[in-house]
Amino acid sequence: MFYALSWFLVFSLLALWSLAAWAAHAAAMWAVSNAGSLAGAPSGIDGFHLPGWLATWVPPEIVQAMTSLLSGLTPVVEGLLLAAPALAGGLTLAAWVIWGLGSVLIVLSGAGLHLLVAMWRGRGRGSQPKPALQTAA
User: Fold this and answer.
1) Residue ranges of the domains in the chain?
2) What share of the chain is helix, strand, coil (3-state, %, to 5)?
3) Contact 81, 32 (CB under 8 A)
């Protein structure tokens, strides 16, 4: 009975792991495939303003330096967004590798749980007295 419960738990965890890996892969593929469409969007960095309560505490030189830094990073980010759809094939391979490693770990922990149940059941039987052997006289 304990063997069946332990393997039911292992297969349930394996099903949940597979579902989670599939959902994460689907979300990542959607994000990667739609990343190229974000490259042509206006950045909005020019309209960056600090709230009034924070502007009194931050020197204007720092605000200007941060704005120019973000403006300089805009071409780099756009280039990465345009290259992102090409990464979809590698993302699928990475998802399969991660799913496989996780599945192997779950099955190995199931085997360890199986051995633990076997040791627990063997210990329980070892404490019972054994019947004496009858010898013919």
Assistant:
1) 6-35+58-116
2) 80, 0, 20
3) no
- Rounded distance, CA 89 to CA 112, Å? 35
The position carrying tokens 């149940």 is 117
Q: Could you read off the pLDDT tens digit of each residue along the chain, which spans 137 residues?
A: 888 899 999 999 999 999 999 999 998 888 887 766 655 555 555 566 677 888 788 888 988 888 888 778 877 877 777 777 777 778 889 999 999 999 999 999 999 999 998 898 877 665 555 666 666 65
pTM for the model? 0.57
- Looking at the chain, how many residues does it have? 137
Place of tokens 């990073």: 73
Distance CA 83, CA 119 (A): 55
Q: Yes or no: say if 32 and 85 are a contact pair by the CB < 8 Å rule.
A: yes
Task: Please tell me the distance from the alpha carbon of residue 20 to that of residue 109, in angstroms, as a whole number.
Answer: 19
Give CA–CA dist 80/84, Å, rounded: 6
